[in-house]
Amino acid sequence: MGVIRPYKPMKASLVHLSKFHDPDYLSLLQSGPPPSLSPKESLDLLDSYNLVDDCELPPTPSGLKVLWNYVTSVAGASIHAASLLTPYGSTPKRDSAGRPVRDVRVALNWGGGRHHARLDGAGGFCYVNDAVLAAQYMRRKFGKVLYLDIDIHHADGVEEAFRGSWRVVTVSLHKFHQGFFPGTGEAGVGSGGAELNIPLPDGVTDADFKPFYESVFDTVFTINETHCRGGAFKAVVLAVGADGLHGDPVVGRDGWSLSTHGLAGAVAHTARRCREMKVPLLVLGGGGYDDVNATRAFGICTVAACEGVKPGVLSRLPPGAPEGEYFHRYGPTFSLHTSPTERGTYGGTDVGRGRRRVEGGMEDARGVLGGWKRIVEGKVDGGFRYDEEGGGEEGNEDGEMSKDGMSVNGELGKDTKPRAQDTSDDGGDNDDYDDADENPNAALSASSNTDKDAE
Ligand SMILES: [Zn+2]
Fold this sequence. Notes:
The chain is built from eleven helices and nine strands. It is an alpha/beta fold.
């Protein structure tokens, strides 16, 4: 019997954030530029960490406090959600009455997925990269991690953090076009297969997206087990942006044309396959700038993620928006679902021409996946787009912390700076989030224990 249990997020400490981010960058985020600097020097300093434009630093102490509260909450929730996951086959802890305390296979943080933040810089509304921090945590706790990202923007910060690492393999489906943020993510395979970037065409619909996503997931998952360094994945992180929904106001008319069905289909497939293969799943959010549609998407995708615990539950979801304070905002359909019109799907251009353009783009996407498969199966040498420097051998473990930087008691370790070439494996789950379940204040988790909180 499955249950859904909401948790209040635990905040990340400086120690947790320092497992990936540069201490000087964190200090700037927390306290702002030193008062001794001139206005120009302050501006130059902020610019050097990309704390400008869409990632400005608040100018007042109270504003900085709000920002710090936000970044520690976002990162804390994702790490905490990851910490709640338990391996299949493990014996759940029990409370004093002998009931299982937790047995969590799927955990979610829709506030997370800040995939553009870098080790020492902000980007695209992302100040800290909770996705990297959570993947690091899961790599240490479970072993090899598959990170999948279906936000319409390239997962540049996550890819950069784990580039060359076969311990966290990154796969990003996104839009790639000149002038489209962040400008990276050209089609191709990096580090002999440890990174895979597949751009999808403007106007891509659920009918194109769903089978392709499923083939990407199944191909990458299955072939890693047999052909790639480190073997099978032991855990999965899926970042789900809602900005691929048709009509997203920030992306504009040339974006994807998915509906909530398309996103939910991808989440449900991932959850079902993770259940079958007995690997824990962490689901994170991402962009999504029509707040009502993003709410619809994350609501439906929450149910889709429960397919990893209770198969069939998505098909039983009532289509209507739930009654409540914001019910009027779901009008005029008052539905949880979104459904773009065919003409709207292609940005008002000729439907036949638009359709041919999408089909051509999907053919290219299938070609990239096929290229990845041939590379990792050893049928062709190397990758394309990236050179093979450092990839496929020891790899670059950038973003993965050494044991020295770990702290069990929450105090800042002596060496808290991530090492670009750190290949240590600190193993186990000796982190201070370990007993998070006994301090029930993390993100949302879908669990399969016998708790009676909710059905
Ligand atoms: Zn996005």
